[in-house]
Amino acid sequence: MDRHEKKRLRDRIGEHLDVSGARLKDDEVTFLANFVDEYDETYRGRTETRTRSRDGWSSDGKYTRRETFTDTFTDDVGIRQDYEYQDDDGQSGASSNEIRDARGILNWFRDRS
Predict the structure, then answer these.
(1) Which of 80, 12, 10, 70 is closest to 44 using CA atoms?
(2) For the segment 38-85, what is each residue's pLDDT rounded down to a tens digit?
(3) CA 66 to CA 110: how far, in whole Å?
(4) What digits encode the pLDDT tens for the residues 72-93?
(5) Separation CA 112–CA 20 (nearest Å)
(6) 79: closest CA among 57, 100, 103?
(7) Which helix (H) or strand (E) holds 35?
(8) Is this structure's pTM higher than 0.70?
(9) 78 with 100: CB under 8 angstroms?
């Protein structure tokens, strides 16, 4: 890919995702351009949920934590990550994070391949 084509694709990606400061290889630019182009038909609204249980230790002894990870492709190009946990001793919590940058999107897909 020549540098003009790469810049054109990077500019198109930049209309939807933060690409500032991201050093992207040719194949990453191609992947992100396809991701942006196919977002509405392939990704928008898709949700993936994973759960797991694990045992842990605290000063009160052993407890079991049930964790739920939910990844949702938002209306705008991006991924919202929701995390919730519930311990059998009554503790619970939740957090949320949105991925709207080029490197974050690439890392999300890399972690799932």
Answers:
(1) 80
(2) 999 999 999 999 999 999 998 888 999 999 999 999 999 999 999 999
(3) 25
(4) 999 999 999 999 999 998 899 9
(5) 24
(6) 100
(7) helix 26-38
(8) yes
(9) yes
- Cα(3)–Cα(72) distance, rounded to whole angstroms? 33
Beta-bridge partner residues of 52: 67
Distance CA(58)–CA(69), nearest Å, equals 23
Strands 79-87 and 61-73: antiparallel
Other beta carbons less than 10 A from residue 14's beta carbon: 15
Higher local confidence (pLDDT), 9 or 21: 9
**Assigned token pair, 100:** 């709207």
Enter the tokens of residue 3. Answer: 């540098």
Give the three-class secondary structure for 26: helix
